[in-house]
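Problem: given the chain below (190 residues), write out its structure.
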Amino acid sequence: MSLLIPLAPPLWASDEAFWVLRLGYDDGGDRLIRGIDADGDSDTLEAGTAGYVEAGIMARLGVNPSQDSPITLPIDLEINLGFKSDQIEDDQISGGDVSFERWTITGIAWWRIGKLRTGFGPVIHFDPVIHFEGSGANLGTDSTFGATALVDYTVLGAVQMGARATMMDYSSDTGKSSADAVGVYMGFQF
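Solution.
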């Protein structure tokens, strides 16, 4: 936190920085793989569908209150490191589970209106890879840049319930896949 203070000294309120944790689930994107389990039931692995966990830091910005300037801005800035993963069972093609995993970095600028917040920002997915457990093979795509938009509501003192949309495409030697997704999450501030 002390490393961030020099970045915006006139806007920083040093007692307004929080650790954040977000748990969620996104749904959407192009179908990557269709798996069939031992019972013959099918499931799909989609580019945008996955559960995720993100952790990072959020700074509440505003002009430091004084007699000359009692103004505060309803803006929060947040940066998170996350992990996003989905898994299906596939006994016919790969002989085991197939998972799609990626590391994420998300930056969000929030606008607060009471307990309601709306935010947007860039998101980067690093090293997206499909793991075929049965065969041990991996299929990777290029790291990619996209955008996210979020809205949430504080239901308890430091707990938010929200929804988000993510817009991005994965690309590899074989073409592009849309990873556009919408989802829900629960967020915590410490």
